[in-house]
Amino acid sequence: MTVLVSGLSGQLGHAIADVTPAPLIGLVRPSIGATRLRRRIESRSGAIELVTGDVSVKHWGVEENVLERLAHEVTCVVNCAGSTVWMGTAESLQTSNVAGAVHGVGFARRLGDISGRSIPYLHTSTTYVAGSAVGTVPETRLGPGGDRTRYEHFKWVGEEAVLRAARTLEVPVLIARLPALLGDSTTRETLYKNSLYLLAERWNDIPLGLLPAMRNARVDCMPRDKAAEMLLAVAEALAAQSVPSGIEFVHIANGAQAPTLRALVEAGRMVDPYAFDRWIRIVPANRGQVVNASALGERFARLDGRWQNALIGLRYIGLDRTFDRSALRTVLGAHGVVTIPSVSLETAARLTFGLDGVRESISAPKHRPLARFRE
Question: Whole-structure pTM over 0.70, yes or no?
């Protein structure tokens, strides 16, 4: 199997470059230059080939002579490109998360026309298209909703546009929704800090030390290497045409195994009780209160970008919901994958809060009072 992946320079793309066991073709912008991605790829002894292109244009901007060659090699097209700037402009989000996604369908169709084979398209989206939904979020199409953030809205529009284009062009398609990605579960390396990291960095600045959350709120986030492994397994199943008919979405998430917010915070305190200057109190809130608090920076107040991103993170840790993984199990099971990788509570806490380990001393550093007496 040879997968062509767009967005290889992103957080998920870096992880795919690290974990892929098979030949891989990466679509990158011409400006990729001598970056750490290129150095990383060059160290893989030729297992990964880079081609230049632009997802914002037809056929992803790949030249015709290159298309002719790729058509006879590629077995599945995977789109990991897209903006993850949650406070991005409508124009930038439309270009990257909608237009780029639809052009990917046409790209897969063009490769299929040249090769005479059906080449499937795997599009990555986000679990957060669920907006402020609570309870069990199904692996199905979701309707329009007025409580999505700007980022969530354009990711949802992208999903709908991909499905329409796939039906028109008769391209086999599957949409994989992923939650927030943390650093590598082994090396802890991360490309950039998403909203969960930003919220953790502002931990000590949270007003009154009060964190609003529903009583059983869950935090579904994944190390990027684990997410990449599952995504590649799904791509392999799609290329092998072993995806059962009728499945259009899978959630590459922790599902019911995602830790509750309370458990995650307590695990962080167990790993390093002195990591938090302030002892945060989780206060019970309903769905509407959590959503309104998370929308404060985007809709109701003028805050700097980092604070706005941090506040948006409240809805990703404060809502009581579970992302269903039934379709994911079915897809992987049909391809012979029995066990879905899971993330331990300790690993999630270490990655989310940037914790190293338990300090041996029973007393905190001199510049901090004893953390357990901060309440």
Answer: yes
